[in-house]
Amino acid sequence: MVQITLTDKDYNEGNLEYIRFTLRELLSQAECHTEVRRAGGRSILIVDCPAYYADIVKRELCDKAADVIAVNYKYDYFKRKIMTGGLGSFERELLLTSLIAADLEEDKRYAFGRLTGFESVAIDGIFHFRLRPLKSKWLGIVNCMPEYFQGAQLHDFITYLLEDKKRKVFVEDEKVYDAQYRRLSRGELMDKGLEEGRIVREVLLSGCGEVEVNSPLPAVDEKYLKEYFGDKIILGRGYFS
User: Fold this and answer.
1) Contact yes or no for 177/211 (Cβ under 8 A)
2) pLDDT score for 198
3) SS3 for 179?
4) Distance between CA atoms of 162 and 207, rounded to whole angstroms?
5) What pLDDT does 55 receive?
6) Which residue stretches of the chain are H helix?
C-alpha cells in the first residue's frame, strides 16, 4: 500500500471533503481507504492506496487539489481584495463567480503543474510558496476592477465572458452535470452558506456556453440563467412536467 496525504488549515477542511467526495467513485474502485482527521491546527486527508493504482490516484488527487486553489483560494482572495461598490450581496457573488470562471482552467493547469510529484501535499504551502506568479496575476485583475459596478454593467461583463464558451451542461433536480453526466460541485468550494442562486453559480463555474434544463428551477436561478444565457438555454421535456 502507498499512503498519500493532502493537508490544509483546519478551517479549510471542506476543501479536503470536496476532494474526497468528488473522487469517491474512483477511490472506491481503486480499493483505497480514506480518512480526514485533524492535528496541530491542520486537516489531513489520508489515502491508503494499492501500489498498482497509486500513480492514477495521485494524479486525480492533485487535479482536485488544483480545483481547490483555482476556486476556493481565488474566491477567498477576491472576496478580500475586490471592493467594487454598486452591487447587492448576491450580484457581488455573481461577479466573483464570473471572475473565477473566466480563466479557471488556465489557473487550474498552472496549479496542477506545481502540485504533482509529492507523496504529501500541503495545499496552503504550495499556494503561498510555489504559486506567487498566480497571485500576482490575480492582483492584476483586482487592480483592473472599477470602483463602481451597475447591474447593467454586470450583465454585459458576464455575457462577454460567456461569449466564446462551447461546453454544454445539464441541469436536473437542482443539480448540474457535465456533458458526460458527471455531477459538478465546484460551487461547494465557495460560500456554502449562500443557498440563493446555487445553480446559476455552478453553471458559471462550469465554463459552459449552453445549458439544457430538464426540471423546474428556483426563481432566482431561472431569472439569472435566462439573463446570461438567453437563447443558449434548451428547455427539456422534464422542465414542463
Assistant:
1) no
2) 94
3) coil
4) 8
5) 94
6) 13-22, 24-29, 54-67, 74-81, 89-102, 104-115, 123-130, 132-144, 151-162, 198-205, 219-229
What lies within 8 Å, CB to CB, of 149 at 6+ separation is 84, 85, 86, 87, 91, 95, 157
pTM score over 0.70: yes
* C-alpha cell read off for 229: 444565457
Residues 232, 212: Cα–Cα separation, whole Å:
8
| The total number of residues written for the chain in this structure | 241
Please answer whether residues 45 and 7 qualify as being in contact, where contact means their C-beta atoms are separated by less than 8 angstroms.
yes
The type of residue at 119 is: E
Query: Is the separation of the CB atoms in 176 and 202 below 8 Å?
Result: yes
What integer pLDDT is reported at residue 162 of this predicted model? 85
Divide the 241 residues of the chain into consecutive groups of 10 and give the mean pLDDT of each group: 95 96 95 95 96 95 97 97 91 94 95 90 95 96 90 87 88 94 94 85 94 94 93 86 67
Picking from 21, 60, 6, the residue whose alpha carbon sits closest to that of residue 186 is: 21
Task: Give me the helix-helix angle, 219-229 and 198-205, nearest 10°.
Answer: 30
Phi, psi angle pair for 47, to nearest 5°: -120, 115
